[in-house]
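Exam revision sheet. Question 4 asks you to relate a sequence to its structure. Input first:
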Amino acid sequence: MIEPLHLEVELACPADHAFRVWTERFAQWWPRGHTMSGDPDAIVFEPWLGGRIYERAAGREIDWGEVTAWAPPRSFSYLWRLRRDRRDATEVTVTIVALDEGSSRLEIVHRGWERLGAGGPGWRDANANGWAGLLPHYIGALNQRERQP
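Answer key, structure tokens:
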């Protein structure tokens, strides 16, 4: 077994707000460089059990993942399979723990690297770097107003 990634970040906002920003404003904080099209607005995160995570690019939909557990405003899980077959998907669990009225803790567990065979350890390391680059964007979005259409 390849050790899962465990990440924890304290957030200066209530848990329900942190949950909504991740699940309902995904495209607002996801960086352009982490998309196929270069357009975060092309990303769709369907916030429900069985919902899809995908990108609309060049007239087609590119599957990124699938929501496998849904317990708002506390936690959700999804299969992450960008550019991979579903059977090779890794699993991400996001939990947001209320600390007090104005703060919470984000906990992420990303596992399933052994499904990627010999490349699993390398993908785990690459994703550790990826999360390090993504989380500052998410934290920044927690203090932004929702974009108006």
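Marking note for examiners. The chain has a mean pLDDT of 91.
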